[in-house]
Amino acid sequence: MFGEIRNPQGERIDYTFSAGDPGAKRLLVIGHGVTGNKDRPFILALASSLAGAAIPTLRFSFAGNGASEGRFTESTISKEVADLGAVLDAVKGFEVGYAGHSMGGAVGVLRASQDARIRFLISLAGMVHTGAFAQREFGAVKPDHGFMWDDNGCPLSQSFMDDMSSIDSVAPKAKSILVPWLLIHGTEDDVVPIQDSKDILGQAGSNATFGQLEGVNHVFAGESNTAAMIAMVREWLKTHGW
Questions:
Q1: CA 36 to mean position of chain CA atoms
Q2: What is the structure's pLDDT at 241?
Q3: pLDDT, tens digit, for every residue of 106-128?
Q4: What is the mean pLDDT of residues 30-59?
Q5: C-alpha–C-alpha distance, residues 68 and 62, integer Å
Q6: CB 102 within 8 A of CB 218
Q7: pLDDT of 40 over the 80 cut
Q8: Is residue 101 helix, strand or coil?
Q9: What is the 3-state secondary structure (H, E, C) of 139-177?
Q10: Is pLDDT of 223 > 90?
């Protein structure tokens, strides 16, 4: 429906569109986290559930991830903000919401703080303190030699570490987000601590809503946990007319 999507570097962005209601004028774009892609189980489950509720979705893989073109070592938050901009360019005519998981949540905050085309924002276990995350998870790994979480398919680059350090935290951007915003985080998240969401919530306005999921980890693992996250998203969207 949207044809080929390419980012500013000319790299093709792989995506899947689920029509939901063919006549709908709203669309939820879904972005993944670091080392992820558009086909992670909980993302698939979310898109499938929303399509069943007649809500169109477009889930995509950032450049260098999944089946999208580009090099993984060039994947940074700053570049992914531009990738999301390319997706927004392609879906003209829709009122667009964006749901981002983990690092994709940080991407969403940065994009929504400067781009009025995002009319609704959802942060799923959203990363906030990027500099602290990079040091906590990868500080002992030598950039351009080692790998993220010992995954040979995910080499750690100096450009990634530099970008995370330069951004440091997306919390100051919260005050610039004036659209309805849902933040969901599990209490057992050991990748991006729930405190990240609480910290940015403290700087957000009354447009932000926080949903805490007890005993849930970073990727909403487990059928009941995934279902709880999806139910929270669907109920929130319903309250905003979706």
A1: 10
A2: 86
A3: 999 999 999 999 999 999 999 99
A4: 96
A5: 7
A6: yes
A7: yes
A8: strand
A9: CCCCCCCCEHHHCCCCECCHHHHHHHHHHCCCHHHHHHC
A10: yes
Q: Are 170 and 230 in contact (CB under 8 A)?
A: no
Provide the pLDDT for residue 20: 76
The one-letter amino acid code at 77 reads I
CA–CA separation, 137 and 134 (whole Å):
5
- Per-residue confidence at 24, pLDDT binned at 50, 70, 90? confident
Mean pLDDT, range 132-141, rounded to an integer: 98
The pLDDT of residue 124: 98
> What pLDDT does 31 receive?
98
**What CA–CA distance (Å, rounded) separates 115 from 124?**
20
State the residue for tokens 């935290």: 169
Q: Measure the CA–CA gap between 224 and 118, rounded to whole angstroms.
A: 30
Q: Which two tokens stand for residue 27?
A: 């669309």
Residue 38 burial (CB count, 10 A): 23
The CA-based angle 18-92-88, given to 5 degrees, is: 75
177: left (phi over 0), alpha (psi -120 to 50) or beta: beta
- What gap in Å lies between CA 169 and CA 153, rounded to an integer? 27
Do the Cβ atoms of 160 and 146 come closer than 8 Å?
A: no
Sheet of 208-213: strands edge to edge?
15-18, 57-60, 26-31, 95-101, 118-124, 181-186, 208-213
